Amino acid sequence: MNALEKAGGPRNVTKTYIGLGRQLEDSLKRLRAEGNQEEAAKAARGFEFFLTRIAARPASESEFGVLYWVAETFMNLGDSLSPDDAEPSPEAVADYQKAAGAFTKIIEACQSDPRFVPQRGLLTNVQIRLARCLRRLGRYEEALDTLVEILKTRENLLSAQREAAYTYQAWGEEKPRCFLSAIRGGRRLCGRMEALPIWSGDGAESPGKVQNLKPSTTFTTRPVTMSRCAG
C-alpha cells in the first residue's frame, strides 16, 4: 500500500483504492448471498481496510463523491450489523464512528472551499446522514444541533424533521422526558432563548413508530428556556 501511494499521484491512488474497494464490496455481497460467512468476514475486514485508507487521505487529494461513497458505505456496514431499533454492536459502533468522521470531513472541506460540493443540496444530505450516525452512537445532542442548523432555514424538510423525531425517540430510551419532545416538537436548549424549528410527531411515544410529522404551534413559535431532556 505504501509503495502504491508513493508511485502514483494523490488522485490516481485514491481511484485505485476505490476500484479495489468496490471489487471487495462485490465479493462481500456475493459471499453473503451464498451464505459463506467465514469468507464474508474476511472480505469485510479487507473492505473496511480499504475504506479506512481512503477516508484517511486529505480532502484536498480526494473529491466529494469519493468521500461520500466511503461515508455512506461505512454507515451501511453499521446498519447491516445492528437493526435500527437495537443498540449497536461494538463492530457497528466502529463503523458509525468512521462514517461520522468521513461525513464531518466532507462538511469541513465544503466550509473551506464551497466548490468542493458539486450541488448545494448535497451538503444537506451529508448533514442529515451525519446526524443519523451521531444518533446511532448515542450522541443525541450533537445530532440535534446538526439538524437544527438545517431546520433554521429549511423547516419544511421532512427528512431532517423525521431524523430529529427519531433522535428524540432514541434519547427517550435513556431519558423518558425526551419522548415528550418527540411528541410535541422542540429541542434541548441549555438555558438559551431560541425558537424551535422541530415539528411534533404522532406516535413518537412508541419506539420505531414516529409518523405524521407536523409543525408544532407550541414549540416552534414560543421561545423556551428550560431543558426538555434534563434528568
Describe this structure in words.
There is one protein chain. With 231 residues, the chain is mainly α. The chain has a domain at 2-137: Serine Threonine Protein Phosphatase 5, Tetratricopeptide repeat, CATH 1.25.40. The protein has helices at residues 2-7, 10-34, 37-56, 64-81, 90-112, 120-136, 140-151, 158-174, 177-184, and strands at 200-202, 211-214. It has a two-stranded antiparallel sheet. Helix 2 packs antiparallel against helix 3. The radius of gyration is 20 Å and the shape is flat.
Q: What are the salient characteristics of this protein?
A:
single chain; Serine Threonine Protein Phosphatase 5, Tetratricopeptide repeat; two-stranded antiparallel sheet; 3% strand; 231 residues; 2 strands; mainly alpha
Q: Examine the coordinates and then state which fold CATH places here, giving the name of the CATH topology of the domain at 2-137.
A: Serine Threonine Protein Phosphatase 5, Tetratricopeptide repeat
Low-confidence stretches: 3-10, 188-195, 202-211, 216-231
CATH class category name of the domain at 2-137: Mainly Alpha
Radius of gyration: 20 Å
* Whole-number mean pLDDT: 76
CATH architectural name of the domain at 2-137: Alpha Horseshoe
In brief, what are we looking at here?
This protein is mainly α. It has helices at 2-7, 10-34, 37-56, 64-81, 90-112, 120-136, 140-151, 158-174, 177-184; strands spanning 200-202, 211-214.
